[in-house]
Amino acid sequence: MPRIAYVNGRYVAHADAFVHIEDRGYQFADGVYEVCEVARGFIVDMPRHLGRLNRSLTELSIDWPVTRGVLPIILREVVRRNHVTDGLVYLQVTRGVASRDFVFPAGTKPSLVVTARKADPAAAAKRAEGGIKVLTVPENRWDRVDIKSVGLLPNVLAKQKAKEAGAQEAWFIDADGTVKEGGSSNAWIITRDGVLVTRPAEHGILRGITRTTLFEVAAKLGLKIEERGFSVAEAKAAREVFISSATTIAMPVVAIDGAPVANGHPGSITLSLRQAFFDVAEKSPA
Ligand code: PDD
Asked: Can the keyword Transferase be found in this entry's annotation (predicted)?
């Protein structure tokens, strides 16, 4: 079954899906994106993802490429045409195609690309059973990581470094020694008293949609959450550690910089958050 992509108004074979060489996403990383999980035939938390997309576009003064009402139809159509029941749908909006000049071009239409791809839920469940390892790296990103920009080179380099060290995620560490977030996920710990701790999202991290929904999952499970910074040392001594993102949900972390977290096995609270997630998350039929 050939994969299909949406590119600026057309559904095309994935192999023939192109944008122009002077697209500002390609030349300046002048664009934003969203990744929604597709689970059991539903697009997960789509309204929240579109709300964050709106914020990213507004912060960068990029116009919506289509109306806000039409985008869900395109997302669903790409998911449907690719027969994705479990996997993800990716959307990217750039400022559009224009002769290379740093300042905003006048009258350029934003570019919209949407792709979808399958993932194996059994493989994700297996990964959660074993947990993942994290490598810490110094924060070296710009100040506006609250915008979901396609400018991800520091994240690429950090995650490559993590991979070379046998880890599956990199954690950016602030100058004051506190954990900011992962290369493509938010960071959490659970204290000895069973309290969930995650850094406030007003500044310095991306406000993860999964993170937001996990606040509701935690409330349902009667778990307390503290929004505050935590150090690498506190994480290493925590009862449980996990990351969250659309593609990982709540994923246990079993080692940080080669040192085991707790007994080196996934924690039960993280697994219960993971299990309860889909009962709480908003599910739009795909
Ligand atoms: N990344 N922080 C960063 C830097 C991220 O890139 C992501 C998501 C998150 C979690 O956000 P959410 O819960 O909305 O997925 C936090 C996506 C999955 C990616 O780039 O592939």
From this structure: yes
